[in-house]
Amino acid sequence: MLGIGAAVLFFIAFLINAAEIGTNDVFSSTNVTLLGLMVLALHVAGIGASRVSRRR
Questions:
Q1: What pTM, to 2 d.p., does this model score?
Q2: Any stretches that span the bilayer, and where are they (predicted)?
Q3: Along the 56 residues of the chain, how does pLDDT read in single tens digits?
């Protein structure tokens, strides 16, 4: 699930950069890319994984 979120953030960063949209400092393409990298790192680390262990 976090991998999909990272892909969406990277796509938004790409659109901001490609369209040269003037945004404030919080939503610059660099900051959105860094957020995407953080979410991707959490995904790779296993945070948010839906592992269900069944014990019998």
A1: 0.71
A2: 34-52
A3: 788 888 888 998 888 888 877 777 777 888 889 999 989 988 888 887 666 667 76
